[in-house]
Amino acid sequence: MQETFIKVNNLCKSFPGVKALNNINLEIKKGEVHVLLGENGAGKSTFVKILSGVYKSDSGSFSLDNSECNFNSPGEAFKNGISVIYQETSLIPKLTVIQNIFLGIEYTKKIFSIIDNKRLLKEYKEICNNLGFNLPTNKTVKTLGIAEQKMVEILKSLVHKAKFIIMDEPTDSLSKTEIEHLFEIIYKLKKENITILYITHNLEEVFKIADRITVFRDGKKVNTVSVKDIRMEDIVNMMIGMDLPKTLANPSSKQNKKEILKVDNVNKDGIIKNVSFSAYCGEILGIVGLIGAGKTELARIIFGSDKFESGKIFINNKFCNIKSPIDAINAGLCMVPEDRKRDGLILKHEVYKNITISNLKKISTNIVLSKKKEIDVSKNVVEQLNIKISSLDQITRELSGGNQQKLVIAKWLIAEPKILILDEPTRGIDIGSKYEVYKIIRELAGNGVCIIFISSEVPEIMNIADRILVMKKGEIIDEFKRGVSQIKVMNTMLGV
Amino acid sequence: MRFKIKNNGQKNFLPKLKGSLIKKYGILIGFLFISIVISIITPNFLTLKNILNIMKQSSIIGTMAIGTTFVIIGGGFDISVGSLLALTSAMVLGLQSYIPWYLAVVVVLLVGAFIGFINGVLTAKVKIVAIIVTLGTMTILRGLTYLYTGGYPVIGTSESFQFIGSGVIGGIPFPIIIWIVMVIFWQFMLSKTKLGRYTLALGGNKEASRLSGVPVDFYLIMTFVIGGLMAALSGIIYASRINSVSPLAGQGYELDAIAATVIGGTSVAGGEGTVVGTLVGVLLLSVISNVFNLLGVQVYIQYVIKGVTILAVVGFDSYSRFRR
Lengths: 496, 324
Ligand SMILES: Nc1ncnc2c1ncn2[C@@H]1O[C@H](COP(=O)(O)OP(=O)(O)OP(=O)(O)O)[C@@H](O)[C@H]1O
Ligand SMILES: [Mg+2]
Known about the structure:
Chain A is of the alpha/beta class. Helices cover 33% and strands 26% of the residues of chain A. Chain A has a 6-stranded mixed sheet with strand order 6-7-8-3-9-10, with helices on both faces. In chain A, strands 16-19-20-13-21-22 form a 6-stranded mixed sheet, sandwiched between helices.
């Protein structure tokens, strides 16, 4: 497997205000799993977009199997065997699995171009058998789970004769078991001699699947190394240029036990069942559970963005009739939603507009919005969270994924919440920044803010939370204090 | 204590100018360019009289298009404003037989706002697609206009009322003053107040806005109210200028208003746009038809050329945004 498959020479790409890729040289070997690492905004996604024909490079070139590539569109790259699996699926939700997979190469019978379903099915079965997949062919894609959708995308690439599959943070929205499943698929693809470029912020994954890794920093390649020769700490050092502190800031010792939020017996048709809990000022309350356990739904109910059937919510010991996010925000309760693109940001707007939208009062004099205040306020949080932008006027869509996520957090920082619900807030954030986010959350809690931290990653919750609630199938099934063993939480979550 | 000192390179917080300048003022530059070319080939074009004439003719669509701009920025669509112009202009003349003209003006503005409110409620609360809502009200309003006028032209009775459409202050026709003042006022509202910011947010991403605490339904309705209000105001100018309104008045005006809005850089997808841009869009359309009139080009051909202009300007803009 040692022959070079992809060869990248002196690739450069600039956007106004940033040099996203600076003279990248890289070789990817045939049949290897090559993992690409780097901080938020290091240029990973830009690199992928150039390989897959979304962007054109400013200078430099790359070749596939010794033939120079010059793609003008993603379609062209796809036809040449390069396919990309993004965080968000690129499938058509209303079409069935099989329609999606064969989109673009429907075999037709001679007369009237009728689609030859038998042939499609036969071919589909073959590929599935090879890989050991088992998917319902006639379900529409929107009814599938995210992991299954990823499988459909992989199948689609294979049917289209992909030789090179790029995955940009594919595990971002997957649960533990789904991730394991994806890895099995990757092993199988490797056996079929398919080359894979894999991007992630989760370093543990690296050791499970990678053959070699490449680290980018600020648009430059730091190094390419074989996984066998490297330790986790070295990777971190390569990524951020220094070591991470061993432990997090300790939890605030002076916890004043003032109850600020009380959720009493909340129900929603089978999704949320008899949920009751309290949360206190200055506390970080972790809620953990598998994907689909109802964490997000619970958060949305408390925040007033979804309706519920029965139950009451009390804030500061007063009954609070939260019917919409506006009611919640007025009561000092804010939420960082799970899906930043759909629920968190206005992608076509400037960075500063996305930050200040949650609190226009703060930036207006009388009723007139003050540009100066707006810039001051935004600049402040951008620096606090170390968000990488070229200017406050930059369009949000242009930010890297992790920086977009930080922006959603920034937006709620300026709303000065008393209770802050964070739903998977570190999704897509590099490890250096994760620590920054944890630190800020700690600081908030230190100032008496009640934090509800939702995550499906147990180590993360163990690290940050003072108290942990475990959810399963819409119920809170157990509660733990800080210091409980990870195994115990895991077992409770899985129900063993 | 920050454990990580990061070199963020050339991070600056000042607006970047290059690139966005062309994007922002592209239409204006295009407009000026066309105007210069035109003034060279048609000597009559660049006279004060002709320019004031163009602006005066633009003021009705121009005033209406301010409302259209708000509606489209908020993510909606309003094709009922042409019919609303007909109803309000007929009413403002008809009512003069019973009440003083200024009261008639107030009544008609309220009617406009109310119709906008209905459009808004049907869109925001009943959740009918905006284009269908306003297709419905467009038909209803045209019917009401026929009922109100009985099918005959309505003629005004007040002398002073005619000042709105035909008066001149300091050499400048009064409708132009109304239009420009409205443009300034609403541009201010759009870029400097909560109303504007929330409207932009709403059109940019409704769900994200809702989850940021924006009362989305209220502001969606507000955009339609502004649309109705501006349509009524344009109806008043229209009525006052001719002092006689037929039930067929204002047909197709909504399309001109939409075209001007889109030419002026407002995104049909919502969330982006300016009132000043729309002003330029209106002027561009008027200038083109003015030139063809000066050159004596047949009206039928003018339609074709107008359509081509819309596609060319908007197409150029969309294409250059898409390409990078
Ligand atoms: N279309 C664009 N216009 C302007 N700047 C852009 C554009 N796309 C990316 N950038 C900038 O290029 C840099 C690299 O972005 P890229 O998305 O490649 O980062 P990344 O390594 O994928 O980060 P993350 O881990 O956060 O996803 C960032 O500073 C980003 O703001
Ligand atoms: Mg990325």
